[in-house]
Amino acid sequence: MSIDESTARKVAHLARIRVEEDELPALASEFNTILGFIEQLQEVDVDGVEPMVSVTPMRLKRREDVVTDGSQAAKVLSNAPDAREGFFAVPKVVE
């Protein structure tokens, strides 16, 4: 797959990146270089290779999945401009 200037312009537009017209050939070239690297990676045979999280074999630390209040309600509410009965107080917006 090859990226031309019009495709580079479209990608820049979709990514909301302003690219000047004279910079489009360089951007297209960079895209083509990246796609070349991806094609090289696709040539690697990974059959039978276990997915890994890290380059060193270790088990991830896990904690029990329980719901808590975080034990910081007072600290969190201290940042609120108005708090009542343990909740944020906000102006009424619906009649």
UniProtKB/TrEMBL annotation:
<keyword id="KW-0067">ATP-binding</keyword>
<keyword id="KW-0648">Protein biosynthesis</keyword>
<dbReference type="GO" id="GO:0050567">
    <property type="term" value="F:glutaminyl-tRNA synthase (glutamine-hydrolyzing) activity"/>
</dbReference>
<comment type="similarity">
    <text>Belongs to the GatC family.</text>
</comment>
<protein>
    <recommendedName>
        <fullName>Aspartyl/glutamyl-tRNA(Asn/Gln) amidotransferase subunit C</fullName>
        <ecNumber>6.3.5.-</ecNumber>
    </recommendedName>
</protein>
<keyword id="KW-0436">Ligase</keyword>
<dbReference type="GO" id="GO:0070681">
    <property type="term" value="P:glutaminyl-tRNAGln biosynthesis via transamidation"/>
</dbReference>
<dbReference type="InterPro" id="IPR036113">
    <property type="entry name" value="Asp/Glu-ADT_sf_sub_c"/>
</dbReference>
<dbReference type="GO" id="GO:0006412">
    <property type="term" value="P:translation"/>
</dbReference>
<comment type="subunit">
    <text>Heterotrimer of A, B and C subunits.</text>
</comment>
<dbReference type="GO" id="GO:0006450">
    <property type="term" value="P:regulation of translational fidelity"/>
</dbReference>
<keyword id="KW-0808">Transferase</keyword>
<dbReference type="GO" id="GO:0016740">
    <property type="term" value="F:transferase activity"/>
</dbReference>
<dbReference type="GO" id="GO:0050566">
    <property type="term" value="F:asparaginyl-tRNA synthase (glutamine-hydrolyzing) activity"/>
</dbReference>
<keyword id="KW-0547">Nucleotide-binding</keyword>
<dbReference type="Pfam" id="PF02686">
    <property type="entry name" value="GatC"/>
</dbReference>
<dbReference type="InterPro" id="IPR003837">
    <property type="entry name" value="GatC"/>
</dbReference>
<comment type="function">
    <text>Allows the formation of correctly charged Asn-tRNA(Asn) or Gln-tRNA(Gln) through the transamidation of misacylated Asp-tRNA(Asn) or Glu-tRNA(Gln) in organisms which lack either or both of asparaginyl-tRNA or glutaminyl-tRNA synthetases. The reaction takes place in the presence of glutamine and ATP through an activated phospho-Asp-tRNA(Asn) or phospho-Glu-tRNA(Gln).</text>
</comment>
<dbReference type="GO" id="GO:0005524">
    <property type="term" value="F:ATP binding"/>
</dbReference>
